Amino acid sequence: MRRLLSVTAAAALTVMTCAYAAAQPVRPSGPDRPGPDSKNMEQLESAKIGFFTTRMNLTQEEAARFWPVYNEYHKAVCDARKAARDNFKAIKELSNKKNYPEVEMKRLLIKYTEGCAQDDELERLYLDEFLKILPVEKVAAMYIAEEEFRAKMIKMWKKPESAHHTDHEKRP
To answer: Is 6 part of any domain?
Structure first.
């Protein structure tokens, strides 16, 4: 019963914090859209840890080995994806110019595709690392938990947004 309550509490915390955290990179700050703060980010991280640990059924020993590697992996992948997004943004900006230097566009395209390849290499490298410390079924559960967590964040993000639009549309 206690385990069920812990899982339920972690899921509820995930639901509450996921929408907020998912919004931060995309939405600008403003009176109705506050920026991120360390308390909310800590809550999100705590919810993520609880969600993954439960979904993966990690023992304390496994969690102690898993989380440092996962955190390293997550940072490396996020950095690679950010670099690829930045390069893509630069490509879009350059393509909006009428007479851009072809050499510059080629350079940006190469950097972008190299960034995407780096992301793939990191995924493969860390898969091997995860398989060294966890059984294959728990590694598979990690990837499933990542997608479920991401989907919950997106779902919760969209829910308040649609309610906001509905309220706005009803006003005269």
So the answer is: yes
User: Phi, psi (5° rounding) for residue 60?
Assistant: -60, -40
Residues in the chain: 172
**Beta-carbon contacts of residue 53 (< 8 Å; ≥ 6 apart):** 63
Helices 60-95 and 38-56, interaxial angle, to 10°? 120
Structurally, how many domains does the chain consist of?
1
How many Å apart are CA 146 and CA 48, to the nearest integer?
Answer: 9
**Residue 169 covered by a domain:** yes
Q: CA–CA separation, 104 vs 83, rounded Å?
A: 17
Residue type, 102: E
Alpha-carbon distance of 44 to 56, in angstroms, equals 18
Domain range enclosing 169: 1-58+152-172
pLDDT digits (tens, 9 = 90+) for 86-145: 999 999 999 998 788 899 999 999 999 998 899 899 999 999 999 999 999 999 999 999
10 and 51 in contact (C-beta within 8 Å)? yes
Please tell me the predicted confidence (pLDDT) of residue 152.
87
Q: Is residue 44 assigned to a domain?
A: yes
